[in-house]
Amino acid sequence: MFSVIIFTLYSPLSNYLKIIIISVSLLIIVILEYSNFKIARSNFNKKNELSNLLKSFDEENKKIKNSFNTFKLAFNNIKEGIMVINKSDNKITDANESFGSIISFPGIVNGRFYWEVIRDVSVLNGIEKVLSLNEPTEIEVSSTLTTQTNHYYKIIPSGSFIIVILEDKTLLKKSERIRADFIANISHELKNPLTAILGFLEILNNEEINESERKKYLQIVYRNVKRLIDLVENLLFLSSIEGGNYISKTSISIKDLINETVELYKNKITEKNIVLIVDISNDLPFIQANEFQLKQVFINLLDNAIKYSSNNDKIIIKVYNERDYVRIDFCDTGVGIPSNEKDRVFERFYKVDKSREKNSNGAGLGLSIVNNILESMNGKIEVQSELGKGSTFSVFIPTNFTQT
Ligand code: ADP
Predict the structure, then answer these.
(1) Which residues contact 279 (CB under 8 A, 6 or more apart)?
(2) CA–CA separation, 138 and 296 (whole Å)
(3) C-alpha span between 307 and 304 (Å, rounded)
(4) Measuring CA to CA, how many Å separate 6 from each of 10, 15, 33?
(5) pTM passes above 0.70
(6) Best residue for ligand 1 mutational test, from 181, 314, 351 (most atoms within 8 Å of Cβ)
(7) What is the pLDDT of residues 88-109, one digit of tens each?
(8) How far, in Å, are 31, 42, 44, 67, 92 from residue 53 at the CA level?
(9) Less Cβ around it within 10 Å: N or C end of the chain?
(10) pLDDT at 119
(11) 390 lines ligand 1 (CB under 6 A)
């Protein structure tokens, strides 16, 4: 168009005609440029719209992803196990992490047939019943697979799926059992001395008895009252440790404390002709702890080692550093503890039946007190034992309680 203008300018046409041609050309140029501008602008607007659309799509996508992740996190962190079974192919479409861990299933649960994962016949029967009923039915089944665990299933139909909710009630049942045992045991421990006291008081009150018999019966009453007081004192001591009351701490030499404890039991050890070996490492740090409580730990463990040993048995006390702890082993060659009762000896009032016959005095509180004291010091106690061969109780006291 510009060449037309230049050509017109230098052409021999009249000025009047030149003006008309140039004006028309310029007009055409303006119109063309304007239409180009409009097209560009609409293209620009379209591009903008598209990028806005993409942006909002991206944001929605992020929101969906976030809520899905939150849902998955919650799903996996619910302490109950949840499993979803597709009714059409009997396969598991989804299961949270708790499900696998409660039943200790090794590997991935999703995508398997439900009977590959659930082995408990009563639960499988429950699922089959819900599948066959074809109507909204909710059933509850307690697993009977093992006696150590207590698993409780709820099976709920939901459209074309079945939802299985699994609760691990093992700990709950265990604490219920401990509570019931505690009440039965404390009643038993109180009843025995009270019955003896009542019986001998009746004899003292009603019957003609001579002076030496009177003294003998009063001694029995005295012993049983003392036993009741010991019992109550031990219970109060236990509850004060459990209550976490502040106790004063001092710098303690474990070597001295062990030697003092051994001194207390010298006579009993000689009476039973027990061979005692005390082996204490020389580089032990001082411990910041309550001396009375720590001594109670050593007394209870040495007392048991002697009580549950026969004449001529052997007891070894070994004290040494082990990683972040000072470790003290009380090792005896006595009656031992059956393996299925080892963990229970730390429960309040728990007594192993076999050894109970040999020992008429213990109330089953000693190890519970030991355990509680050590827990309050961030320490721990472990037991290894073989019935008829002996036991080793190992005490671990953290050295971050120490002062060198
Ligand atoms: P108790 O006062 O009856 O001895 P403990 O709490 O100290 O109570 O111990 C609980 C039970 O653990 C005891 O009744 C006994 O059966 C068993 N026990 C504890 N120490 C030993 C040991 N060294 N050898 C064998 N059995 C033990």
Answers:
(1) 316, 317, 318, 319
(2) 54
(3) 5
(4) 6, 13, 19
(5) no
(6) 351
(7) 999 999 999 888 888 888 888 8
(8) 33, 16, 14, 21, 38
(9) C
(10) 84
(11) no
